[in-house]
Amino acid sequence: MEIILAVITGVLYASGIYMILRRSMVKLILGIILLGNGVNLLIFLLGRITKGEPPIIDSAEKVLEGVYADPIPQALILTAIVISFGLQSFAIILVKRTYKVLKTDDLDQLNTTDEDS
Amino acid sequence: MLAAVLLGFLFSLFLVFAGSYFKGKLAVLSSIIPISLFVYFLSFLPEISNGEVVYESYEWIPSFGVNLSFTLDGLALLFALMITGIGSLVFLYTSAYLKGHKYLDRFYGYLSLFMASMLGLVLSDNLMSLFIFWELTSISSFYLIGFNNDKADSRKSALVALGITGIGGLLLLGGAVLLGDVAGTYRISEMLSMRDSITDSSHYILILLLIFGAAFTKSAQFPFHFWLPGAMKAPTPVSTYLHSATMVKAGVYLLFRMTPVLNGGDIWHTILIVVGGITMLYSAIHIIFRTDLKGILAYSTISALGILVFLIGIGTQAALIAAAVFIVVHALYKASLFLITGIIDHETGTRDVTQLAGLRKVLLPVAIAGFIAALISGGVPPTLGFVGKDLIYESTLHFTNNAVLLTILAISTNVFLFYAGFVAGVKPFMGPLPKKFENIHLPSPLMWVPPLIMTLAGLVFGIFPGLIESAFAKPIAMTQAIAFEDFHLKLWHGFNTVLGLSAITLVLGTILYLKLTPSHALENSIAKFNFISPKILFLKLSEGFAVFSSYWTNFFQTGYLRHYISTIVAFLILLLGYLIFSDFSLESDFSTLAELTIYEISILLMLLAGVLYTVFTKSRLAAVAALGVVGLSFSLLFLFYSAPDLAMTQFSVDTLTVILFVLVLYKLPRYLNLSDRWLRIKHGVLSASFGVLITLLILRVLKEPKNTEITEFYAENAYKLAHGKNVVNVILVDFRGIDTMIEISVLIVAALGVFGLLKLRLKTKDKK
């Protein structure tokens, strides 16, 4: 199982980077999101995969025992998902704004500081 | 001694606040500082001439072995007296020379900063503090050369000087660190006993080259000499003080100081004799092509510095004593000539030697000082210059190799120096007085007394050389750790070879002075060779470096995001790839594949399809929808693999993202395909290899055993300490509660940003 997930992480990284290298700003954002998903999966994998054993203590118990999924990567990923949502929404609005002002979706049109370009 | 060194620094700091009081008539009071220091150091004279050495040490950064330790021995005392003595005269002179100057206080500030640094340099016993003071002299020199900072010439010269001496400073630091490493201490006095282990070490040659580099750049040796003539853009008191009497001798001082530590035989002698020899003759010949008085003096200064390096290279006791005496001789006559040039420039407004004549009729005391200075410079008896020149010939004649060649070299250099002294000190005062100079008056005594004092000192020391012998020559000889033989400085040695050589020098020098008139034609003739002069080559080199760095910068800093990302990714691939493949095995556990259920397979296929569709679709809406598929597959994946919280978060966040995208992006233009096929293939290969690398990396990491210590802590304590049954939640809101709070504030900031951008109404700018 881990092997397949490792390959999928690789695919996410590759497609994320590929999209970031495009000139369209929308593609750039899509690339960042894909890359972010890849990173989440990477962290998730490092905690190893456990099926059907969430890190929740049984109502009768006081201590988590036996086989259980690692809660630490989950806590990290949860944080990451939320933060990347903040980033994504800001980036999306920024692109919209940029288009409104400059009438372009092309990153190459942005690499100048001259106002009248 | 610490107080003596700090005094100058404190005074320059004081001028920052109280400078305005020292611009007017009070300016002359600043001379109290160098004068009192001079008297202070003079009080050590009896002790030092008895061969005693005064130590003083203060801890500064003891953990690095960097301390403020000071040594006052013969060598240090000679320099300290020169620095404070000539300093006193220059301070006095400046108060008249720059009278009423707008920035006079600033000038005094720089000057005392320099004096303090220079004192620190010659008194330091610790190589590191020596380096720091060394750099401070370069920096204060930069300010002083560029004092007329409204002139482009001055600024450029200051920059060139700082560049060259700055390179030297770096070399000195390198040499000091290496030397400290080899010796195990930065204290020069402790290194003295380690000469053999230092000269035998494998770093010896490198240390030697670094120290030499530092000394040659500071003391303007060929081919680094060109910054010194440029430095003559500074006001004359600066040229007098820094660029002839003291700072440029710092390199010579360093060589003197290092002789007992680093003098390890042939290589030491050869390099110093060759470099010193070339410098002294090269710049001596240059003298006859100059018409600017300061240019003449600059080249003769370089030549004199060459003689000093050359003598230290010879390294016999006679040569070292000759060098010590010559330092005094040179400081006395060259500083006087500079001050005299300053007076001439101040009164007539020109330094062009072809125009100056007959000034003795209006500036008689200056003419007297000039005449004596020329005598000292030419080595005419009974001045100290004669004693110095004899010592030089004495040491070249008795050197074991090439004695004849070295002696001829020394004689020819001295002939040119004789010429230089007379052109600068006598020629402007001879002949008929041109009409335009008839209204000139003698300036304030503050200006003409200092050169007179120095030249008379040169005369007195010449008649009574014993004064110099007991005060400096003997104590200095003792610092050099050579087999000490008693000697006496004498004006009259009887009829011998040396006297004959002296006579030859005087005759040839007189002939040269009488036959050769400085002219602009000569000056122009040498200008034709400028294109191969070290200065031009050096400037070309630095221009080339600037061009190279602009190419270098433009290569990496293109302003295109994809270039930056490609570069970063490519480097990551190279580095990680090397690491992974140097330690790689493809064995993995494939047994778990059998446990795959049909649900998992379908989710993974959905995920994969979503990713590929996002990348390859030509419709933006489809891409966004595919991204939604990816996100939802992720939530399912998390659900399967025991992460319900993640599943819920991912679900809500992804739904929101897709909605946001759709709401915002329908206004955007068509989804453009902007790159050509070749670029897409290139980027595809790059990102695909990066993906492969990440996969391999994960497989590699998964083989390592997992550390479960922290996991177990949370499993154990989630309920006990925080009374929560969902461990992930407990971690987020309890154990790492503050992190989560900060995360929330990040989100708030993002939300404010989004809100602001949405509500922002840009005013329509005036269209051009």
UniProtKB/TrEMBL annotation, chain A:
Stretches that traverse the bilayer: 6-21, 28-49, 75-95
One Pfam family per UniProt: Oxidored_q2
Membrane topology, record value: Multi-pass membrane protein
GO cellular component: plasma membrane
InterPro entries the UniProt entry points to: CPA3_antiporter_subunitC, NUOK/Mnh_C1-like
Gene3D superfamilies: 1.10.287.3510
Family: Belongs to the CPA3 antiporters (TC 2.A.63) subunit C family.
Subcellular location: Cell membrane
Species per Swiss-Prot/TrEMBL record: Psychroflexus aurantiacus
Sorted UniProt keywords: Cell membrane, Membrane, Transmembrane, Transmembrane helix
Name assigned to this protein: Na+/H+ antiporter subunit C
UniProtKB/TrEMBL annotation, chain B:
Record's protein name: Putative monovalent cation/H+ antiporter subunit A
PANTHER family: NA(+)/H(+) ANTIPORTER SUBUNIT, NA(+)_H(+) ANTIPORTER SUBUNIT A
Organism this protein belongs to: Psychroflexus aurantiacus
InterPro entries recorded: CPA3_Na-H_Antiporter_A, MrpA_C/MbhD, MrpA_C/MbhE, ND/Mrp_TM, Proton_antipo_N
Compartments reported by the entry: Cell membrane; Membrane
Domain named MrpA C-terminal/MbhE: residues: 680-759
Domain NADH-Ubiquinone oxidoreductase (complex I) chain 5 N-terminal: 61-108
One Gene Ontology term from the biological process aspect of the record: monoatomic ion transport
Regions crossing the membrane: 28-46, 76-95, 107-124, 159-184, 204-228, 268-289, 296-314, 320-341, 362-384, 404-426, 446-468, 494-514, 564-581, 596-616, 621-641, 647-666, 678-699, 740-758
